[in-house]
C-alpha cells in the first residue's frame, strides 16, 4: 500500500527578530530526524517592517530564492501561499498581529505571552472560533518530549498527588546597559520579567498541578504576588507569585518566580508529590534532563532515575508539528496547549500585575 504523503504546512513569518530566526531554523530541520513522518514544514513568506530586512532574513536563514519577502506584515496575511503565520513581534503587538492574521483567514501560532491580558486573548479566541482557524500560543515547552514524559509519569499515579512545587526562571538581561527602549525594559512593549519569563514557570504549574488528574482541570483557587520594579523604567525586574489549586480533597500550590537581574537557578522546577519528587533541570523553557526520586513509606528515597533528551534542532519544531497536525485534522485548538491554559496563564498574570501595581501605559492593552 502506498504511504500517505505528509501534510506540508506553508508558513509565513511575521517579524525578523531573534525568536523568528530560532523558530525558522527549527522549521528547516528535517522532521525525520525527530521521527516525525506525517507532517512537514515550508517557509513561503517573510514579513518585516522593511523589505530589505525580510530579504536579508531569507538570504541568511531560509536560503530559498522562492520565498517571498514583504516590507509589511499585511503582505504575508494576504499571501495565498501561506497557510499559517508565526508571530515573533514584541508582546504588545501580538494582539493586533494575531487579529489581522485571523481576519485574513490564516492559522496563527503566536509567541508568548500570547497577549498583554486575558481580555485580549478571549477576544482572539472568539474570533478564531468565528473564522474557523487554528490559533495557539507558542508555548513550545509543552510539546517537547521531556515535558510529555513528566506528564506521563505523574499521570501514572506512581508518585501520588502533587502537593507543592517551585519553578523559577531567571537571566541577567544587563538592564543597566541596554537601551530603555529595549523590549525587556520598555513598558510600551510590555517590558519586565513577568510577561517575558513568566510563561515558563506558569507552564510548569499548569503541567504539574492544573493538568494533574486529581485537579480535574479546576481553575486556581488563589493567586498571591509580589513584584520588585526597576527604577530605570518602572517595569518589574523580579516577580514571585503563588498559584493555589484546591478541588475537593486535592490541594496543592505552586511557588513561581522570575528575575531579569540574576542567573538561573538549579534545578529550575521541583514538583513534590506525596510519594516522590520530579526535578527538572534549567533552563526550564527547554530542559534536557529531569530526575525522579521515589520515596518509601518513611519518606526516604529508595530509587532515583535521570532521563536525558537529545534531538536535532533546538526544540521549537515540536510545537510546529503540533500546529501542522491540528490544521490537518481541522482542529481550532491544541489538546496539549489549548485556549483554557493560555487563558489561565493570562488571568494569573493580570492578577499578579494588579497585586504588584504594574499598570501598562494607556493604549497598550487593546481590549480590557
Ligand atoms: N519562545 C521563546 O523561546 C522566545 C524567546 C525569545 C522571545 N520570545 C518572544 O518573542 C517575541 C519577540 O522577542 P524577540 O526576542 O525575538 O524580540 P526582537 O529580537 O526584538 O524582535 C522583535 C521583532 O519584532 C518586530 N517589531 C515590530 N514592531 C516592533 C517594535 N515596536 N519594536 C521592536 N520590534 C518590533 C521587529 O521585526 P521587523 O523589523 O522585521 O518587523 C523585531 O525584529 C516576544 O514576545 C518574546 O516574549 C519567545
Task: Note the main attributes of this structure.
2 domains, binds NADP nicotinamide-adenine-dinucleotide phosphate, Dihydrodipicolinate Reductase, domain 2, 368 residues, 6-stranded parallel sheet, alpha/beta, single chain, Rossmann fold, 8-stranded mixed sheet
Describe the protein in words.
The protein folds into two domains: 7-141 and 318-336, 3-Layer(aba) Sandwich (Rossmann fold); 145-308 and 343-356, Dihydrodipicolinate Reductase, domain 2, CATH 3.30.360. It has helices spanning 18-27, 51-62, 73-78, 91-103, 118-131, 145-156, 193-197, 199-210, 317-328, 339-356; strands at residues 7-14, 39-47, 68-70, 84-87, 107-110, 135-137, 162-170, 222-229, 236-247, 250-259, 269-273, 276-280, 289-295, 301-308. β8 (222-229) and β9 form a beta hairpin. It contains ten helices and 14 strands. α4 (91-103) packs parallel to α5 (118-131) and α5 runs antiparallel to α10 (339-356). The chain has an eight-stranded mixed β-sheet with strand order 8-9-10-7-11-12-13-14. The structure holds NADP nicotinamide-adenine-dinucleotide phosphate. Residues 15-19, 48-49, 53, 88-91, 93, 111-112, 138, 140, 183, 196, 285 line the site of NADP nicotinamide-adenine-dinucleotide phosphate (NAP).
- CATH class of the largest domain reads Alpha Beta
Identify the strand order in the major beta sheet.
Answer: 8-9-10-7-11-12-13-14
CA distance, first residue to last residue: 55 Å
Kindly identify the CATH topology of the largest domain.
Answer: Dihydrodipicolinate Reductase, domain 2
Quantity of strands, as a count:
14
Total helical segments:
10
Structural class: alpha/beta
CATH architecture classification of the largest domain: 2-Layer Sandwich
The major beta sheet can be summarized as: 8 strands, mixed
Amount of beta strand: 25-35%
Tally of discrete structural domains: 2
Poorly predicted regions: none
Shape: globular
Give the SSE order as H and E letters.
EHEHEHEHEHEHEHHEEEEEEEHH
Helix content: 25-40%
Rg of Cα set: 21 Å
